[in-house]
Specification:
- There is one protein chain.
- Strand 1, helix 1 (21-30) and strand 2 (36-42) form a beta-alpha-beta unit.
- This protein has helices at residues 21-30, 53-63, 78-85, 97-113, 133-141, 152-162, and strands spanning 9-14, 36-42, 69-74, 89-93, 118-122.
- The protein has a single domain, classed as Rossmann fold, CATH 3.40.50.620.
- The longest helix has 17 residues, at 97-113.
- By secondary structure, the protein is an alpha/beta fold.
- The protein is globular.
- Strands 3-2-1-4-5 form a 5-stranded parallel sheet.
- The structure holds 4'-phosphopantetheine.
Length: 164
Amino acid sequence: MTAPRPPRIAVYPGSFDPITRGHEDLIRRARTFADRVIVAVAVNPAKQPLFTLEERVALIRGAVDDPAVDVRSFDGLLAAFARATGATIIVRGLRAVSDFEYEFQMALMNRNLAPGVETVFLVPAFDLTYLSSSLVREVARFGGDVASLVHPAVQQALRQKFGK
Ligand code: PNS
């Protein structure tokens, strides 16, 4: 009899400022091969996010309804966080060729720091490939309609931030 394999844990890191329908799509895709997905919200001192860390975590929890998806924040190196959680996979999305160079460097550095943790690149649904948190923030800032791009709770949070 073969021993049962340990649960396959994937970490999906990012800024999620805020979570979009593109992120939600990637989380669903990651769940097709991972038993657990940890959405890891980065504390990035170099960035000035629109939403606080706590707000970003809460918005993801509100947008993702899957008991096998955990939402956590992390400070410091992603490779160390992945190791500490027992993850063997890092999930990143690739939307365009322009994403590639940065993602490629990051994947190699993370493998160097945490051998055995593999980066897996996922491509979002075709109609979501143009989507990014920064575009969503910009459209919302000027009162544009983001209803099809984000969860309703995120839309509401954007309205409140921008007083629309
Ligand atoms: O959504 P983003 O902003 O593209 O996510 C980038 C993120 C958070 C995944 C990346 O900046 C990261 O992993 N930060 C943690 C610090 C770290 O490990 N840096 C070295 C990466 S090789």
